[in-house]
Amino acid sequence: MMSKYIRPYFLDPMARLAHWLHQRGVTPNAVTVAGFLLTLLSTVMLGMGMLFWGGIVLWAASMFDMLDGALARYANQVSPFGAFLDSTLDRYSESITFLGLVFYFSYQPESQTHLFLIFLTLIGSWMVSYTRARAEGLGIECKGGFLQRPERLTILIAGLILGQVLPALWILAIFTNVTSFQRIYEVYTQVGRLPGKQTIK
């Protein structure tokens, strides 16, 4: 939702940077892997309790997540494997980021609420991704909902940088799961309009 309004402001800078990288022979998959490695660095920092700087590095990694697609389109190197790699590393990136937070908060006193919210957020995030993938397997487009990945990243990064991790986790824990139910309902309404009988197991 939010990305629909924010992403256009990044299109021109990303196109310029994509041109610069293409001239130097950098591939979209290399950018995807570089972004994942930055996320790994952020995870280590978060696990060490460096929440502010971990948030900064995570923000930089999120820029790579936008750049790989821009470079793929600019260089006409869009490929099924590139899309698969990007999506797969996105899931890993989100999971290990919260793993870093789990490691940090597991050593903090009275942090049970943080850990509980992280677990709920992970459930919601995985289900948001799964509902889309399962729907697309049925030939149904399913991209709606409050918190897609860019929104989730934005909220988490803001919470880390501003020192408001707990409020950010509350928002994520609630609205990732709301988003998954929004998508379930979206598929439910679309299935009735499809020709033939659709079976969801």
Structure, described:
- With 201 residues, the chain is mostly helical.
- The protein has a single domain (2-189), classed as Four Helix Bundle (Hemerythrin (Met), subunit A).
- 78% of the residues lie in helices and 0% in strands.
- It is built from eight helices and no strands.
- It has helices at residues 2-6, 8-23, 28-47, 51-74, 80-105, 112-137, 149-161, 165-191.
- Helix 3 runs parallel beside helix 5 (80-105) and helix 4 runs antiparallel to helix 7 (149-161).
- The longest helix is centred in the C-terminal third of the chain and has 27 residues, at 165-191.
- The relative contact order is 0.12.
- The mean pLDDT is 88.
Model regions low in confidence, pLDDT < 50 over at least 5 residues? none
C-alpha termini separation: 29 Å
Please count the helical segments: 8
Helical residue percent?
A: over 70%
Please state the average pLDDT score.
Answer: 88
Radius of gyration: 18 Å
Main sheet attributes: strand count, strand direction, barrel closure: none
CATH superfamily grouping: CDP-alcohol phosphotransferase transmembrane (TM) domain
**Structural class category:** mainly alpha
Task: Please state the second-level CATH architecture.
Answer: Up-down Bundle
Please name the defining characteristics of this protein.
single chain; mainly alpha; Four Helix Bundle (Hemerythrin (Met), subunit A); 8 helices
Summarize the structure.
By secondary structure, the chain is an all-alpha fold. The protein has one domain (2-189): Four Helix Bundle (Hemerythrin (Met), subunit A), CATH 1.20.120.1760.
